[in-house]
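Possible regression after last week's pipeline update?

I re-ran a chain I had predicted before the update to compare outputs. Posting the input and the new output here so someone can diff against the archived version. Not blocking, just want to make sure nothing changed silently.
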Amino acid sequence: MNLIQSMGGEGMKIAVCDDDPMWIIHMEEYISRLRDDYSETEYDTYTSGDSLLEYYKTHGNQYNIVILDIEMNGVSGIETAQKIRDMDSEVCIFFLTSHREYVYDCFRPSPMNFWVKPVEYDVFRADIARAYKRIEESDAYLKVIENRSRIRIKCADIIYIENKDRKSHIYTASQVYTVGAPLGELMRELDNSVFVRVYKSFIINLKYVHIIEESGIRLYGSDRVIPLSRTYKKELENKYINFTERENF
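New output (post-update):
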């Protein structure tokens, strides 16, 4: 049974925001070269943080990737990114700057990377590939059967899965789905760098981890303490470290 449906052939939509026309042209050239790998890539350009924020306010979360110059006139790139992050928790943000000393100010909006001008194309391409992988993961769906109906559950929305009474109960913030597939089968189909088995009857999504205790895990979006077995504790700790490193850089 194929349980995962991802982004597939769809492409990316990128916003480039820089008040330097030469760097707008430079980024346009790099994005055009990306089309050899991502044929459906689209992009828009902005010359101020205000104009990009206005687009967000009127059109919503349309972009997969936002590339921001830090040192723009008016609203800075960092302030723009913080306001975008308040509206869009999923977008991948990259910063451009001529000065390395800004790097420590950039982490509050959780960017994927910090590029010092002039950024080389190979670095740009590798980072966009990482962003594309994250986009695919966030657009992945779990296809299951519940009460004889075929349904799709967005993987990013799954907080945890519990096996009880020979059924798997999939918990999201809005509802619980009950399916016949056993945990082992679900675990084989889910991304094992994001979903981890922590007890014989529980799988959790690392995205929602709040606190790891000696024998339990507290998750955002749930009041329940998920039991943690010694058998799975070391694997959980290692995967959680890797997960947070990927998410924060």
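Follow-up from reviewer: compared with the archived run. DSSP finds six helices and 16 strands in the chain. Marking as no regression found.
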